[in-house]
Amino acid sequence: MTSNRVHKKTFTQEESRVRALYPDLFLKTFGKLSNPDEATEADVQKKFRKIRRRLHDEVSARSAQLQTTDKKAPRGRRNSAEEALRNDLRRNVYILMRDLDGLKWWRHVENLVQRKSPGKRARSITAKRYADVLHYILRDDETGNVLLPSPAIGEISNQLAYAHRHDVPFPFLNGFLSEVHFEKAAQKERANEWESWHPSSRASAKEKPAKLPKDSGKRASPSSQPSRLLRTPSKRDK
To answer: Which intervals carry biased composition (Basic and acidic residues) (predicted)?
Structure first.
């Protein structure tokens, strides 16, 4: 009972905080239209540009502040302020993309954010969309400079795409990625893998053919395989 209250409280605080910063990032308020299906491309792009400006300005200001601080993280690691910035960026872009997906408005912004030379780090369509949106948000209009390097954007895009197809609620986004491990989540997205608890994981496990013995050219029968290969691994197996 206590944990349910904690989860509900966390969700409320998170929702209130993001709503205060970006009120247009939610389905009910994105366009404030009586019928989202009637939204024109011009309407959606106008709202989208407004949201993009808010996100860009916040990331730019916080990045500039980070450069003036003297606190340096150990080599190969980011300090807590930089990690918090990336976590907030992940969550806000995730909310934005989930709303665009839910409203079926991606078609209205695709031409706006699509890059002429898409990167190769994002393999799936969803990951490529996240990469396009991140580049669009983080690119400076005047200089053309991007606030994050392309490898970092590629990693974040794959992480968000992995959470997206697992339908992770946004308050639990960073917790989910942290539990999976951020780098591993990106790797799993590129490899088209699923978490063991997801129905798609069990479905794909059933479709995998039995392995061939090294000393035979014939396909092994399922009964000859160890039983642990014929079922979805449980938490006890790990």
So the answer is: 69-83, 204-218
Question: Which residue do the tokens 């929702």 mark?
Answer: 15
pLDDT given for residue 78 in this prediction: 63
CA atoms within 13 A on the CB side of 120: 0
**pLDDT of 96 over the 70 cut:** yes
DSSP result, 26-41: STTTSS--S-GGG--H
Q: Which residues pair with 139 in a beta bridge?
A: 146
**Do residues 200 and 194 touch, judged by C-beta distance below 8 A?**
yes
Q: DSSP characters for the chain?
A: -HHHHHHHHHHHHHHHHHHHH-GGGSTTTSS--S-GGG--HHHHHHHHHHHHHHHHHHHHHHHHHHHH----PPTT---HHHHHHHHHHHHHHHHHHHHHHHHT-HHHHHHHH--SS--SS--SHHHHHHHHHHHHHHB-TTT--BSS-HHHHHHHHHHHHHHHHTT--GGGHHHHHHHH-HHHHHHHHHTT---TTSHHHHHHHHHSPPPPPTT-SSPPPGGGS-GGGSS---TTT-
Q: Is 119 in contact with 154 (CB distance < 8 Å)?
A: yes
Nearest residue to 41 via CA among 135, 104, 94, 90:
104
For residues 178 and 172, what is the distance between their CA atoms, to the nearest angstrom?
10
Does residue 45 contact residue 30 with C-beta atoms inside 8 Å?
A: no
The pair of three-digit structure tokens given for residue 59, joined into one six-digit string: 């990331």
Q: What is the pTM of this model?
A: 0.71
Alpha carbons 231 and 216: distance in angstroms, whole number: 24
